[in-house]
Amino acid sequence: MSTVLYLPGDSAALALGADEVEHALKVEALARKLDLTIIRNGSRGLFWLEPMLEVVTPAGRIAYGPVTASDIPGLLADNFLHGDKNHPLYLGKPEEIPYLKNQERLTFARCGIIDPTDIEDYIAHDGYRGLKNAIGLPGAAIVEAVTESGLRGRGGAGFPTGIKWKTVASCAADQKYIVCNADEGDSGTFADRMIMEGDPFQLVEGMAIAGMAVGATKGFIYVRSEYPHAFQRMQDAIREANRAGFLGPDILNSGRAFQLEARLGAGAYICGEETSLLESLEGKRGMVRAKPPLPALKGLFGKPTVINNVLSLVAVSTILEKGAEFYKNFGMGRSRGTMPLQLAGNIKFGGLVEKAFGITLRQAIYDFGGGTASGRPLRAVQIGGPLGAYFPDALLDTPLDYEAMAAAKGMLGHGGIVVFDDSVDMALQARFAMEFCAIESCGKCTPCRIGSTRGVEVIDRIRHGIEPEKNKVLLADLCDTMLDGSLCALGGLTPFPVQSAVRHFPEDFNRPTKQAAAE
Ligand SMILES: Cc1cc2nc3c(=O)[nH]c(=O)nc-3n(C[C@H](O)[C@H](O)[C@H](O)COP(=O)(O)O)c2cc1C
Ligand code: SF4
Questions:
Q1: C-beta 444 within 6 A of ligand 2
Q2: Minimum-distance ligand to the CA of 206?
Q3: Number of Cβ atoms within 10 Å of the Cβ of 506
Q4: Atom 31 of ligand 1, residue of closest alpha carbon
Q5: Chain centroid offset of residue 442 CA
Q6: Does the reported pTM lie above 0.90?
């Protein structure tokens, strides 16, 4: 009988040599006449253990990791195909690893478990139950369930998904669209990618449900250009879903239609901003559109359009499968459900941690992340991508909840948590924020286009000790102008990392730094 092995085909595992591990397994299997079936699954999100190889045994799946190609002969010698404990890379049952065991995985429940290319495997793991439930409901009832669940957009702004859908549903139009924002440009984030590579049918399902809810028959997934594997997985999943009747002109004989296409993004951070994304999808340069009109009323090709992040759309399949009440029972305050946090930067155990809202930053970074990778003291954490605020240690007890983060002058964004140790120069990080904005600005409005370049210059003057007090006042004034006068959140939020660095780490702005002196 064939022994079944799971080896992630996820980009993180590929970057760490998963293909070489597969090759080594095949070579050894041939030489030793072993009958192996190797399934390329998604990642479980424990990146320091990738590539994590799992073998199916009568006692369940047993994991070994991080495995390199050169480990394979030794693993075979130690009888890993029977789940033997002897090898030093033995991890036991993956679901018993505390990092995974202590999570509340709803969105990521299947990721790393199923074969992402096999629709039958998805169905066997409760896939398409949400869609089947949705088919029996009128659109308004689906919108009501999503509203009732308390789901808020996971792309950054935390806007209530049900309200957005209701706006589109109540528009009369000959054509409406569902657009999935899979541009995932935030630093330290990878949750969208993991879903697309590890559980792509869930996104297809969420989008088909969204289409039924608002009366849209066509959808697009705008996939970040740096995600070729995710793009391929989504294209394969769309083809399979069409073949099996979960997409197409008559979904599961319901009389409801939904067509889906994946498109590659244009490779600019601003293309993740929803109106720029629409321009880009229409084949134009990614420039921000002035609002109003909202995309919900006049979006893709001028038609009513739902734009949602990957994580928002996949959460919908859980909500329709298990009910709004079930989903709502996770979380705190007005932040309901779970949030897939992404631990990155200088952190010992980087990876994906899905928890109900309300876990503190400290718990995420220390209980899951194990502190800094360097072993040096933690100094700063940037939450919510390149436009997110930097928090010092004193703010680490802030719960991860939209309102609590805003009260601490930060934002949760897409859930990226990037850790820095005490070697970080925060004046340089503030400069980086302005420089990033200058490079990524679409150029449509002056506060962002010109302000960001002036911001780099003024921070450089402070860093070099040139009239520091006068330039700090100027920097504060510039930040206010960008905050109040920018057309979109790229220029409007860049002051967050800058001002938080000045507020929490003033000592870095009080002296010419070593690096500044060397420039
Ligand atoms: C500069 C900029 C970049 C953004 N990038 C992304 C992105 O990569 N992915 C995403 O889902 N939302 C991104 N957003 C937020 C989108 O504009 C929009 O709010 C989101 O797609 C709405 O989906 P949601 O309600 O499900 O969060 C970005 C916003 C700005 C201002
Ligand atoms: S804030 Fe920047 S990115 Fe946004 S519209 Fe203005 S110039 Fe473009």
A1: yes
A2: 1
A3: 12
A4: 489
A5: 23
A6: yes
